[in-house]
Structure formats: C-alpha cells, structure tokens
C-alpha cells in the first residue's frame, strides 16, 4: 500500500486559493493556502524560506487572520502546517467557512 493511501486524516480538507504570507525564524514568503482543515494547512511558498519539520511558523492572510503552527512536512515548494489549536484558531477557521466560502 502506498504511503499516501495509508494516511488517515483527522479532519476533512477543503481546497482553497487563499493568498497569504508565512514566516519563520529563517525567512518569510508570500504564497497560497492550497488546502485547509480545522487542524492544518498546506501552504505553497513563492520562495524557499528554509522551513523544516518542527519549525514554528506564522501564517497571515486577510481571510484567516493570524495563525501559528508547526511544520509537519515539506516537499518542494509546499509545507504542511499543524495549527496550534485554540478557541481563537477554531473561530478564525469557522469565520472563513461562514463568510468566504
């Protein structure tokens, strides 16, 4: 069985085209939130910022506001971010689904 087929998602992902900025201690880049769930984000970077697994990142966008999380994976120009879960994070994501979808 392929690895991709064996990954079980905790929460469903929604495809998006949200523009934003991601920053970590090694750099900052604009990019696109490719998919979104209540617990994570796939972010496509316009520039390599050296974000590696375990790095803390901050994501800013007009639609989502300010979110923080930890890089879980990186592949090419994309990073997977596990969001720091809080009532504020949940409210920001719920607001996106309510007003921007």
Report on this structure.
The chain has 101 residues and is α+β, with helices and mostly antiparallel strands. The chain has a single domain, classed as Beta Barrel (Thrombin, subunit H), CATH 2.40.10.220. Helix content is 17%, strand content 50%. It has a six-stranded antiparallel beta barrel with strand order 1-2-3-6-5-4. The chain is globular and about 35 Å long. This is ATP-binding protein. Keywords: ATP-binding, Nucleotide-binding. InterPro entries: PilZ_domain. GO terms for molecular function: ATP binding; cyclic-di-GMP binding.
Mind telling me the CATH class? Mainly Beta
Please indicate the percent range of residues in DSSP E strands (runs of 2 or more). Answer: over 45%
CATH architecture: Beta Barrel
Structural category is alpha+beta
The spatial strand order of the largest sheet comes to: 1-2-3-6-5-4
How much helix, percentage-wise, in residues?
A: 10-25%
Q: What's the CATH H-level homologous superfamily?
A: predicted glycosyltransferase like domains
What general form does the structure show?
globular
